[in-house]
Amino acid sequence: DSGVTQTPKHLITATGQRVTLRCSPRSGDLSVYWYQQSLDQGLQFLIQYYNGEERAKGNILERFSAQQFPDLHSELNLSSLELGDSALYFCASSAWLQANYGYTFGSGTRLTVV
Amino acid sequence: AQSVSQHNHHVILSEAASLELGCNYSYGGTVNLFWYVQYPGQHLQLLLKYFSGDPLVKGIKGFEAEFIKSKFSFNLRKPSVQWSDTAEYFCAVRGGSQGNLIFGKGTKLSVKP
Questions:
Q1: How far apart, in whole angstroms, are the C-alpha atoms of residue A93 and residue A79?
Q2: Nearest Cβ partner of A99 from B36, B90, B94?
Q3: Mean pLDDT across the stretch B10-21?
């Protein structure tokens, strides 16, 4: 157990639907990062939150959004889902704004869009 | 923009063979460099990291990596691999004011018993 908790572990949904992925960072970590892992694109950085504020954006689609709550857990919302959104979604956390010492990853949510 | 290149997509070795996985990054300033490992069905785990100082970094499970600034490289090595090293290996970089890590596409390592 890495200390970063992601739920659910698996999600199967239909095209056009909306889902919410949840992440609880390791205790004491203020930064949360979301990544999408697919076979062809590898690990793509989506977005970073630090202490409740959005701090960096990567290749995140407009259909996707995220937030970090006062208790520091984060949610990634994916809407108008397409088949191509099927992927593993990882959350990671670090203590500070800059991940000088790296991240701790969660176990991921496997999203299948049918 | 920062980027990371991992040259080998899939490496197949026999047990006890030596391993070297290539990683090159593009960023001219101060960097932090990382190797992560992902065992089948599991999350990414940190193998080792370079922050500053000695460019030869030792990590867990007998892995090491050497930071060569002039070559923008951070290759991963292990003198003798085991079947249990079968996994996917990711190189990552963080540079400048950027908070997040940029990952390479990964190298899948298969070790034959």
A1: 24
A2: B94
A3: 97
Give chain A's length: 114
What is the Cα–Cα distance from B100 to B19, expressed in whole angstroms? 28
Which residues have CB under 8 Å from A69's CB, separation 6+?
Answer: A52, A75
Q: What is the per-residue burial (b if ≥16 Cβ within 10 Å, else e) of B62-96?
A: ebbbbbeeeebbbbbebeebeeebbbbbbbbbbbe
Question: pLDDT tens for residues B24-33?
Answer: 999 878 889 9
Q: Residue A45: in which H helix or E strand, if any? A: strand A42-50
CA separation for the pair A86, A89 (Å, rounded): 9
A48 chain-B contacts, CB cut-off 8 A: 99-100
Enclosing H/E stretch for A12: strand A10-13
- CB contact A51 to B (< 8 Å): no
The confidence score (pLDDT) of residue B100 equals 86
For residue A89, pLDDT over 90 is answered with yes
CB A53 within 8 A of CB A66: no
**Is B43–A107 a contact, with Cβ atoms under 8 angstroms apart?**
yes
